[in-house]
Write a structure and sequence with these properties.
The chain is α/β, with parallel strands linked by helices. It folds into two domains: 38 residues, no CATH class; 315 residues, Aldolase class I (TIM Barrel), CATH 3.20.20. 44% of the residues lie in helices and 13% in strands. The chain has 15 helices and ten strands. Strands 8-1-9-10 form a four-stranded mixed beta sheet. The chain has a three-stranded parallel beta sheet with strand order 2-3-4, covered by helices on one side. Helix 12 links the parallel strand 6 and strand 7. The protein is globular and about 60 Å long. The structure holds ligand V47 and iron/sulfur cluster. Iron/sulfur cluster binds next to loops.
């Protein structure tokens, strides 16, 4: 270890490393130094140190499936390849019955979670979505429903004239169990104006998650990286999340989402390398010391990068998604129908020397494989 730090000849890296080994929190300036100066091997060692403290030698996955109710959306995020206007041949919209049929198609499968996220459809209100949750809960009561990004929630709750607390409590009563991490993008207000000007603000995103935590609804958090943001913007984003998590402890995991470039208005930017992905996982793991888990969403970065990420602080591979997920395939990420069998996901985890553990949506162990 000494050799590794000395060779880089950076006394500040030595100090940061000592802090991480001692289990101390690093500052925003130190996070920035890690992004700018630390070598990939050093980042791997530090991130795995933090990861092992939090989840030992385990790497998690779950059995889940996704429903994307519609890709029609009132917003126009410049990075989005997915949203379409009404009448576009590539647009879709499922009825409650069609979505219930998707749930029924998993009848004989041991799934524990349904993840429901889509575009922000102008026509539907909170009661339409609440009634969908009620139908799914009634049909399969033990299924955990993780649904609606803060952007969808902001739209449906303000349209109903409810306060955030009233809206979330209503949806919880209909069967909402947790909230996914989407819509966070990048919190810096100037950048947000440039990439997704018209949707819920950073303040609103954070307020919805904080209110959810206080109402007993856990959630996830994401960052969209690899576009026009700087390292300082990434650290600022994570700092806002770390402060909120200190107050509520309601976040289960952090999910860095890599910008994918196909078919959107930011294609000219290209995509960052796998080395940058690994670096970003590692700094996230080290900086967000109060987030219990770090997820590599493999349909977005691909199976190989996901496998590597386990040596850079990641401890969660998301699900054996069987899927209907189109947000990434439309943005150019690999398979149009991503799926991984339990055997494949377990082998991928074992190859890195870690132990595969099937989890439920709040990280209780379902089975050690
Ligand atoms: O908010 C959209 C992102 C998110 C692109 O909580 C893009 O378990 C890359 O949040 N390139 C939605 N990313 C997906 C999401 C998510 C995914 C998996 C698990 C969880 C969870 C949440 O997808 C959006 C946006 O940040 N996104 N377009 C794109 N071109
Ligand atoms: Fe709509 Fe979400 Fe796409 Fe933005 S990222 S345009 S909110 S579907």
């Amino acid at each position: 270890m000494d050799l590794l730090v000395n060779n880089i000849a950076e006394s500040d890296l030595r100090e940061i490393s000592e802090k991480v080994f001692a289990g101390e929190r690093i500052s925003t300036d130190e996070g920035l130094i890690l992004y700018k100066k630390a070598s990939l091997p050093l980042l791997g060692i530090l991130a795995v140190t933090v990861k092992k403290r939090l989840s030992g030698n385990k790497a998690y996955f779950n059995h889940n499936f996704h429903i994307e109710p519609t890709n029609k959306c009132v917003y126009n995020c410049r990075f989005c390849s997915y949203h379409k206007q009404e009448g576009d041949p590539e647009s879709w919209e499922y009825s409650h019955e069609q979505m219930l049929d998707i749930v029924k198609s998993f009848d004989s499968k041991p799934v524990t979670e349904v993840h429901i996220v889509g575009g922000v459809h102008p026509a539907y209100d909170i009661h339409y979505w609440g009634s969908l949750l009620q139908k799914i809960s009634k049909y399969r009561p033990e299924l955990h429903i993780k649904a609606f990004s803060a952007i969808e929630l902001d739209y449906m709750i303000s349209k109903a004239g409810m306060s955030v607390e009233e809206g979330l409590k209503y949806l919880k009563g209909c069967g909402l169990n947790s909230i996914p991490g989407g819509g966070a993008e990048i919190f810096d207000e100037e950048l947000r104006k440039q990439i997704c000007d018209d949707k819920a603000s950073s303040e609103m995103w954070l307020n919805i998650h904080e209110t959810a935590h206080l109402a007993g609804i856990p959630s996830n958090a994401t960052i969209l990286y690899g576009h026009i943001e700087t390292y300082a913007n990434r650290i600022d984003h994570m700092d806002r999340l770390r402060k909120l998590q200190d107050r509520t402890k309601g976040f289960n995991c952090f999910i860095p989402l890599k910008f994918r470039k196909e078919n959107n208005n930011m294609s000219y930017l290209g995509e960052v390398s796998v080395v940058e992905d690994l670096k970003n996982y590692a700094v996230s793991r080290i900086f967000l010391d109060n987030f219990p888990h770090l997820k590599a969403y493999w349909p977005m970065i691909g199976k190989e990068a996901a496998r590597l990420s386990l040596s850079f602080g990641v401890d969660d591979m998301d699900g054996t998604i069987d899927d209907t997920t189109r947000i990434y395939s439309m943005a150019g990420a690999g398979d149009t129908s991503p799926a991984m069998s339990t055997e494949e996901i377990c082998n991928l985890i074992r190859e890195t020397g870690m132990e595969p553990v099937e989890r439920d949506s709040v990280y209780n162990t379902v089975k050690e494989w």
